[in-house]
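Q: Sequence in, structure out?
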Amino acid sequence: MKATGNILTAMTVLLTLTACGNNEKEFDATGTFEATETTVSAEQSGTLMRFAVDEGDEVAPGKEVGLIDTTQLWLKIRQLEATKEAYQSQKPDLEKQMAATRQQLAKARQDEQRYRELVADGAAPSKMLDDAANQVQVLQRQLDALQSSLSNNANTLSKQMNATDAQVSQLRDQLGKCHIASPVAGTILEKYAEQGEFVTTGKPLFKVADMRQMYLRAYVTSAQLQNVKLGQKVKVMADFGNSQRREYEGTVSWISSRSEFTPKTILTDDERADLVYAMKVAIKNDGYVKTGMYGEVKF
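A: Exactly. Output:
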């Protein structure tokens, strides 16, 4: 009987320990998986001439996936280039247009010098020298005025050409924005437009996210903060339902510095806590984890 009693006692202790072990949680916090999502919108208005993306497609950064009609922009660029050529043809040739006046001025200076010598020899009256000197001054003023006028005209045309170049640059920038590309590498999550539609500036076209780098957003209490630090390696379990889990190695990448009231949709190790801190745990996705899926983290 004594032996039987010892066996019953041992079995009772074993069952008690097993029950206590089963009450211990396998996780310290739970949350949902998310990825960094980018919504790409139209930067120009026009008809979508081409839009080759579908939900689930993988795209590379900078890869062109669509094109908005560029006809009107090209026509405006050609018009401005023709205007610039017209301005260029109107620019005066300063040397050619001042050549005649320069020649007259040179002749007047020669006459002035000749009369100066004649007056010095007493062979000509001084009035002739005065008239020659006056003619030099008049021609010099005419040359200066002509040069100033032609220079102003040339400067005005140059500024108009520069303004035209700036307008062409603006149009070429708008032309570049007609080419739709993904800014990041990732997977197309949602598509908001179809080829042939007319889109306006700011209209969302598609949403893309890098599904290879996922984050589990979980919440911890202030008591748990002492067990968590940035860069810490933790164990993450993705919950697929029906008790099916997949384990990943995670790294604590962010801890909120501000507390918040416990969200109704999450659980923590201390469910009675009113205030919790959000945190993100980064994992490398193997293709099984999806956004919105529930997960667990063990410190």
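The first strand starts at residue 29 and ends at 34.
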